[in-house]
Write a structure and sequence with these properties.
Elements: E1 2-6, H1 19-32, E2 37-42, H2 62-73, E3 77-81, H3 92-97, E4 100-102, E5 105-110, E6 113-118, H4 128-138, H5 140-147, H6 151-165, H7 173-193, E7 197-202, E8 208-214, E9 217-222, E10 230-234, E11 239-243
Helix pairs in contact: 1-2
């Protein structure tokens, strides 16, 4: 049985030529691993935008949610670490789909190996503007105020924001390099305090990278599902970075 790691699917993103086809690709991948997956880790920005209302379910993602429910009902553990695009998951998806949702990082023991996992948007030295927005989006009062606005206004606003900020389908080259330095420095400092950590797994950067920071400790950045369609898989003995076609 295997552990799978995915991030940055950005389902529903306005810059996809065909959002439905992107969703179908993800569903086909999940279907292809249903017989050997023990756990699936979704490391943030799985949805390009999601705001969870108390009584109303936003439209879209039916195939994707249906597949997650099928896998969870089959006994496959699904862990979702929220990113900076899918921040506003509250209790509907966990209760309806039977998945675990975390904000921040988690540390898991898999087959005797220690894995540190997080989306990565809160790692290291952040730009003041991004730090402000990150705090604002997680503020409970602001969330309640936002939920009071009719979705006919909030959903187009969020889509236009995403389209404007992600015209190139990911962070700029300069931002990606800066964030890579952030996660490398963070991982090295964390390893000093937790020397038994074998793997650090990140999303967010839209880069496909893996490198060692110590003989028995490795960093993996999972890439994205806009152009690369990449994922990590642990087979009980080895961690591999793969691409789905």
């Amino acid at each position: 049985m295997k552990a799978y790691f995915l991030s940055d699917l950005h389902l529903g993103a306005p810059y996809f030529p065909d959002s439905k086809e992107g969703e179908k690709r993800v569903v086909a991948f999940l279907d292809s691993i249903k017989d050997d997956a023990e756990v699936i880790y979704l490391l943030g920005d799985i949805l390009d935008y999601w705001y969870e209302y108390r009584y109303v379910v936003p439209r879209g993602f039916v195939r994707f949610f249906g597949k997650l429910a099928e896998l969870a009902d089959k006994g496959i553990r699904i862990v979702w670490l929220i990113g900076n695009h899918d921040i506003w998951i509250f209790d509907y998806l966990p209760k309806e789909l039977g998945i675990e949702v975390y904000d921040g990082s988690i540390v898991e023991d898999i087959d005797g190996k220690h894995f540190f996992m997080t989306h990565g948007d809160g790692i290291g030295k952040l730009k003041p503007s991004f730090r402000f927005l990150r705090a604002l989006f997680r503020n409970r009062w602001c969330q309640k105020a936002y939920s009071a606005i009719h979705p006919r206004w909030t959903v187009p606003f969020a889509s236009n924001w995403s389209r404007h900020s992600r015209k190139q389908g990911g962070p700029s080259e300069e931002d990606a390099k800066r964030m890579m330095v952030n996660i490398t420095e963070f991982s090295k400092e964390y390893l000093k305090l937790h020397p038994d950590t074998n793997y650090f797994i990140f999303g967010h950067l839209h880069l496909l990278e893996r490198f060692n920071i110590a003989p028995d400790s490795e960093v993996m950045v999972l890439g994205e599902w806009i152009k690369t369609y990449s994922y990590g898989v642990w087979n009980g003995d080895k961690l591999t970075l793969c691409k789905y076609k």
